[in-house]
Specification:
Number of domains: 1
Oligomer: single chain
Strand content: under 5%
Largest sheet: none
Order of helices and strands: HHHHH
Distance between the termini: 21 Å
Shape: globular
Number of helices: 5
Low-confidence stretches: 88-95
Mean pLDDT: 76
């Protein structure tokens, strides 16, 4: 896995952990996750839509793509899926 992806995963996990104690951060992560990532040095493409949600132990999220992703975004889509799975220790169960 590229080092940049590792850094993003580590940053998001750190932010989620911090948000447990910082309600303002949690609200900003949910309202505008792209801005929070940018504040921490992550470039977010203008064309990207980033959605954050608050999960619980009774919610399972199964994303369904409306259409196949463009080849340039395929690795990023896989990363997002991996990040969601890896984040289960912080945010709840995933399949």
């Amino acid at each position: 896995m590229p080092k940049a992806e590792d850094a993003i995963k580590q940053l998001w996990a750190k932010l989620v952990t911090e948000s447990w104690e910082d309600e303002g951060l949690r609200k900003r992560m949910l309202k505008d996750p792209a801005a929070v990532l940018q504040e921490h040095g992550i470039e977010v493409p203008v064309s990207a839509t980033i959605k954050a949600f608050e999960s619980d132990r009774n919610t399972i999220v199964l994303p369904v793509s409306a259409e196949p992703p463009e080849p340039a975004f395929w690795e990023e889509a896989v990363f997002i899926s991996d990040a969601s799975r890896d984040a289960k220790q912080f945010t709840g169960p995933y399949w």
